Amino acid sequence: MNCPFKKRWERRKEARPQELLAAALDLFVERGYSATRLDDVAARAGVSKGTLYLYFANKEELFKAVVRENMVPVLGEAEDTVENFEGSTADLFREIILGWWERIGSTKLSGIAKLMMAESSNFPEVAQFYFEEVISRGNAMIVSMLERGIKRGEFRSIDVNQAMNVVCAPMLMLMMWKHSFNACRVDPLQPEAYLNSFIDLLLNGLLSDRSAIPQ
């Protein structure tokens, strides 16, 4: 005879890692890395601390799992888009930047970027992990888009590594603003308008006549 309680228990057990990761993401964003305690993660997920340890050895491993479960797949999808995109590089930039905001920037995942900027110096192993798994791949993706535009004759020849830093900075600033001044309702930014202005400046510059650019 099948036992419905056993089936519910099995479903609950299978769901626990996801519940723990969801609770951990909430707390990491709300409190930061240092102030997040495993006891609180377990409590928010509705399990004992001992149960949490069945899946994650420590807070660092839990944080890594949060990043790998939530951010790395989105980055992989963006990399696939860059590799297979058939339109212009300008359209590709728009798709990647606006897609980044939709999938990362507008969600609680953007709080992970603030966490890393605030606490990376105190947790170098965590910072190294985040750099290797997220930042370096994101940087390489942007460089590949710039090189694509240059190769196709759509962009002028530039220092792609320095340009990559310039492209990343406004997107980081928007996430920082979202989790600081916007949270306090001080001069709130409108993300879509901000990103459209950024894309326009990135692709078209400021000068009305590009031939007038001083050498």
Task: Determine Rg (CA atoms, Å).
Answer: 21 Å
Q: Could you give the distance between the termini?
A: 83 Å
Q: Low-confidence segments, ≥5 residues, pLDDT <50?
A: 5-11
Q: Mean of the pLDDT scores?
A: 89
How many β-strand stretches? Answer: 0
Q: How do the SSEs run, as a string of H and E?
A: HHHHHHHHHH
Structural class: mainly alpha
Task: Give the biggest sheet.
Answer: none
Continuous helix count: 10
**Silhouette:** elongated
Instruction: Please estimate the helix content.
Output: over 70%
Provide tags for this entry.
single chain, 215 residues, mainly alpha, elongated, 0% strand
Write the layout of secondary structure elements.
Layout lengths: L3 H28 L6 H8 L3 H7 L3 H12 L1 H13 L4 H17 L4 H10 L4 H28 L8 H19 L12 H14 L11
Helix pairs in contact: 1-2, 1-4, 1-7, 4-8, 5-6, 5-8, 6-8, 6-10, 7-9, 8-9, 9-10
